[in-house]
Amino acid sequence: MGKRRLPDLLTASRALIASAILGLIPAGPQALRSVTLLLLLGWTTDMLDGRLARRLDKEPTWIGEHEFQFDMLMVLASAIYLVAVGWVPRELGIAYLALAVPLSLAVHLWGEEFLKFKAFTMLVAFPWVFAPFIVAYFHERQVAYLGLLWMVVALVLDWRRFSGVVGDFLAGAKAFLRRP
């Protein structure tokens, strides 16, 4: 395996992490610690893949061009886990996901600009990104603190990337709200 494939492998690993999270549903609420640790692993690969691709001066592949979708697959898997095991009330979680996922897909399929899709999807996914750590705060506090520590370290190490993500969101939101 060449070094040039490593960024794609890191990105694709988030699909495996999503599968692992879904595979923990039968373990029930007791798997919360494992789910949050898998999410931290996934977000770590998210920080590393783009940085490594740029360092290797690598042209984007199909996987690299769909990196955001891999991220959102992992978020969706954790949301499904939280709902399936009862950490989030089923009626609320199912209704939210049943509305948000098709709307996000519709924006992607029928929208002209990727940034519109990205901004809308980030907006509806935002609560689910933090929900596992909020639940962990009440039931697996050490993992919640580890998540908070990870977030602070990630911001310190990669502030420019974070501000770029926020910039993408704001640009996409403006494009979404702009009349045709």
Your description of this structure?
With 180 residues, the protein is mainly α. It is built from 8 helices and no strands. Helix 2 packs parallel to helix 7, helix 5 runs antiparallel to helix 6 and helix 6 runs antiparallel to helix 7. The chain is globular. The N and C termini lie far apart (46 Å).
Question: What labels describe this entry?
Answer:
mainly alpha; 0% strand; 8 helices
In a nutshell, what does this entry contain?
The chain has helices spanning 6-23, 32-55, 62-65, 67-84, 90-110, 114-139, 141-157, 159-177. With 180 residues, the chain is mainly α.
What layout of secondary structure does this protein have?
Elements: H1 6-23, H2 32-55, H3 62-65, H4 67-84, H5 90-110, H6 114-139, H7 141-157, H8 159-177
Helix pairs in contact: 1-2, 1-4, 2-4, 2-6, 2-7, 4-5, 4-6, 5-6, 6-7, 6-8, 7-8
Strand content: under 5%
Q: What ranges have pLDDT less than 50 throughout 5 or more consecutive residues?
A: none
Number of strands: 0
Provide the domain count.
Answer: 1
Radius of gyration over C-alpha positions, nearest whole angstrom:
17 Å
Helicity level, as a percent range? over 70%
Count of separate DSSP helical elements: 8
Task: Give the distance, in angstroms, between the N- and C-terminal Cα atoms.
Answer: 46 Å
For the residues shown, what is the average pLDDT? Answer: 89
Form type: globular
Largest beta sheet, briefly?
A: none
Order of helices and strands: HHHHHHHH
Category from helices, strands and their pairing: mainly alpha
